[in-house]
């Protein structure tokens, strides 16, 4: 039998092992009995007499539940998941998968269209700088494509000759996903992912300078996109204008000259 004793107001517990005398029924301690003296302590300048409180008997340790007791913490439910729970999980997975399909399929096309727009911006800056240098130096070989013969090969040759871009950099900017230009030599325009138009110094700022190869500009604003045309099929197309602005357009925006820009003939 275990007995707890409390000391003072803070209930400090001591455990004593007692043995009940089978004859007299009085408990005797298995340890040597000794009287705990009273203790005086100082608190706030006053002496307080503390004495040991009477011992209270109660069980110290909680009973250990039986192994087969259903209320025991060691008791575990051995039942598995049900078919209803499995079906719910399957339905949730299918719903999430169906929602992710549009994002997965549309993501690469949108990113490649944006990358092509960025490449056209670089090509526009190079062409504009070449035109400014031609006017400054009085060099008629440098200028807008329509002012230097209106050919793609002459335009790209002057870019490389003037040191505006290296051959490999030019090939990268003329490429797009699904239409990669081999590096090391000047390509033909039909081998690239862009189409160049014969813009001149006198052309308006909204004149179309570059488009993606799956779109050809016309006076009516182009024709419907061909699903098999590289690089983007009928996913969308890119235009870039002489004034330095461009856009990624949707397939149903072909023919809208207010969004595409004014027409000039394509370079040969």
Explain what you see:
The protein has helices at 83-137, 152-161, 167-173, 257-260; strands at 2-5, 14-20, 27-29, 39-43, 46-50, 194-196, 208-212, 237-241, 246-249. It is α+β, with helices and mostly antiparallel strands. The chain has two domains: 2-50, no CATH class; 108-260, no CATH class. The strands form three sheets. Strands 6-7-8-9 form a four-stranded antiparallel beta sheet, with helices on one face. Strands 1-2-3 form a three-stranded antiparallel beta sheet, with no helix packed on it. Strands 4-5 form a two-stranded antiparallel sheet. It is elongated, with a radius of gyration of 45 Å.
Protein traits:
single chain, 268 residues, alpha+beta, four-stranded antiparallel β-sheet, three-stranded antiparallel β-sheet, 4 helices, disordered N terminus
Question: How many structural domains can be distinguished in the coordinates?
Answer: 2
Low-confidence stretches: 1-60, 72-76
Overall 3D form: elongated
Question: What is the H/E string?
Answer: EEEEEHHHEEEEH
Please summarize the sheet with the most strands.
Answer: 4 strands, antiparallel
Q: What is the helix content?
A: 25-40%
Structural class call reads alpha+beta
In spatial order, strands of the major sheet run 6-7-8-9
């Amino acid at each position: 039998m275990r007995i707890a004793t409390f000391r003072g107001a803070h209930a400090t517990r001591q455990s004593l092992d007692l043995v009940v005398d089978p004859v007299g029924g009085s408990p005797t301690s298995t340890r040597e009995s000794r009287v705990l003296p009273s203790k005086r302590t100082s608190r706030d300048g006053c002496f307080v007499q503390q004495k040991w409180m009477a011992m209270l008997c109660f069980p110290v340790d909680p009973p250990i539940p039986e192994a087969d007791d259903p209320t025991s913490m060691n008791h575990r439910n051995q039942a598995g998941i049900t078919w209803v729970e499995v079906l719910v999980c399957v339905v949730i997975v299918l719903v999430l998968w169906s929602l992710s399909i549009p994002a997965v399929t549309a993501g690469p096309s949108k990113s490649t269209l944006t990358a092509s727009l960025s490449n056209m911006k670089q090509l526009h800056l190079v062409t504009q700088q070449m035109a400014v240098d031609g006017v400054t130096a009085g060099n008629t070989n440098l200028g807008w494509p329509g002012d230097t013969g209106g050919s793609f090969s002459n335009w790209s040759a002057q870019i490389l000759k003037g040191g505006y871009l290296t051959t490999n950099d030019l090939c990268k900017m003329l490429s797009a996903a699904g239409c990669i230009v081999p590096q090391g030599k000047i390509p033909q325009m039909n081998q690239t992912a862009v189409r160049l138009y014969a813009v001149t110094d006198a052309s308006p700022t909204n004149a179309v300078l570059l488009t993606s190869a799956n779109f050809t500009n016309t006076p009516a604003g182009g024709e419907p996109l061909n699903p098999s045309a590289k690089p983007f099929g009928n996913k969308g197309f890119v235009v870039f204008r002489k004034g330095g602005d461009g856009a990624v357009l949707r397939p149903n925006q072909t023919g809208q000259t207010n969004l595409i820009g004014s027409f000039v003939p394509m370079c040969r």
